[in-house]
Amino acid sequence: MNLLKDLQEIDQEISAIEATRQGYQAELDSFQADAAKVQEMVDQLNEEVAQLKQEEGQLQQELQKQRDNVAKVEARLPEIQTQKEYVAVLKEIDMAKKANKDLEEQLQGKQQEISVLVDDLKEKQDELGAIKEKSEARGAELGSLLDESEAVLLKRTQARESVAAELPTGLLRKYHNLFKRRGGLALALAHNGACTGCNMQLPPQQYNQLLQVTEIQTCPHCNRILYVEQSA
Ligand SMILES: [Zn+2]
Predict the structure, then answer these.
(1) Looking only at Cα atoms, what is the longest distance across the chain?
(2) What is the pLDDT of residue 147?
(3) What are phi and psi of 37, to 5 degrees?
(4) Which of 16, 112, 133, 201 has its CA 20 to 30 A from that of 226?
(5) How far apart are CA 230 and CA 228, in angstroms?
(6) How many Å lie between the centroid of ligand 1 and the Cα of residue 196?
């Protein structure tokens, strides 16, 4: 019976350590998930900025071409002979300049769009940097906590094995199943004629037997293995 109590104590410790380890791991995972999410936004912004810059380049090229065109037409002015031709060329220049103004406005709009996105990008990159910094610091901490708890877990598992080795297989199996089914409590103290596992009254005869005999008995209500406090 004492062996079983030892086993249950160790198993409860093991469960607690495993739960703690899962918590550490979940925290690590959440850092990674956060970083991945922000990284995705950064990537997308980078893509958008690249696209806009390409459009900006096209507009600039177009504008340069139009400016060259205006210069070329203006260069023709001194050679013009007739008034009619002069007016026509001036009109052509005027229209080309208007078109240039249009292009300039488009270019400005594009540049503004880019600058807004670049600000967003910077913000997200800072955010990502902060997450990475935090996750590196906490990640190192969590890593060593995981290592430590793994060492403890290994010791407990070894202790558990040596205790388990001394128990009959059938009893061990029964204990195992109960431990899993009964939320980590396979053994229950019988006290004042009741099972403290399920708080149900035990048949008086069984309770009396428990107090006298050392054979393994189970609670008729919750099936837990019963034990009584050894009087000192
Ligand atoms: Zn019970």
Answers:
(1) 133
(2) 93
(3) -65, -45
(4) 16
(5) 6
(6) 6
Whole-angstrom distance, CA of residue 151 vs CA of residue 156:
9
Beta strands in 57-216 (DSSP E): 187-191, 194-195
**What whole-number distance in Å separates Cα of residue 153 and Cα of residue 10?**
10
Q: What is the CATH number of domain 2-166?
A: 1.10.287.1490
Query: Residue 215 carries which DSSP code?
Result: S
φ, ψ for residue 192, nearest 5 deg: 50, 40
231 has pLDDT over 80:
no
Look up residue 53 and give its two tokens.
């810059």
Q: How far is the CA of 95 from the centre of ligand 1 (A)?
A: 97
Domain map (residue ranges) of the chain:
2-166, 170-227
Band the pLDDT of 232: cuts 50, 70, 90.
very low
- Three-point CA angle 187, 193, 194, nearest 5°: 50
